Amino acid sequence: MKETTLQIFEHAGFFAILISLFVNIVISIIGILPSVFITAANLAFFGFYHGLIVSIIGEGLGAVISFVLYRKGLKIWRLKDFQHPVMLKLKHLEGSKAFWMILCLRILPFIPSGAITLGSAFSKVSIGLFAIASTLGKIPSLIMEAGAVFGFMQVNLKWKIIILVAFVLILMWIGRVRRKEIANRST
Q: Structure pTM?
């Protein structure tokens, strides 16, 4: 995927930045796709610092546009459709509490961005407060992601395969441990 994106960037020339921003916005709207591939393409094509800046701008724009669309979509649904306790708590979140909650959740790279944006759209937080908190929170998260991606891009193929296999094995082990914990709780 990164290679295809790089080819598109090369053919696009000056418009590569606009394409990158557009892809980031689409990924944000979908809400479940990881942005790591576009981050990798940005780093490879624009260089580490410029690629990081393009990624920050793209993810910031994507979060704000997603927020607006999610909020409009939530107005169509009624409150009774959202009886989950977390969603009900988020409904009353606003002001500085909302700012710090969004900022802290965005810093954590393993929390899906779409979930944070949806929860924020469900709350009373203003678009301006969301935009600032979300973008500021994304900066450290993207720096960590960019560092990991850039380091991974520097490693030769043999080590990439070893890292990926180790990562998959760790995920499988975590899944097995969680299933055992759930089984033990239910007995």
A: 0.75
Closest CA to 176 of 168, 109, 165: 168
**What value does the mean pLDDT take over residues 56-82?**
84
Mean pLDDT of the chain: 85
Reference 90, options 128, 63, 59, 116; nearest CA is: 116
SS3 93: coil
Report the share of the chain in percent with pLDDT over 70.
91
Residues ≥6 apart with Cβ < 8 Å to 23:
5, 38, 58
Alpha-carbon distance 134 to 138, whole Å? 6
Residue 130 has φ and ψ, to the nearest 5°, of -60, -45
Contact 104, 137 (CB under 8 A): yes
Residues 6 or more apart in contact with residue 56 via CB below 8 angstroms: 135, 138, 139, 142
**Residue 122 confidence (pLDDT) above 60:** yes
Q: Which of residues 126 and 160 earns the better pLDDT score?
A: 126
Cα(127)–Cα(159) distance, integer angstroms: 43
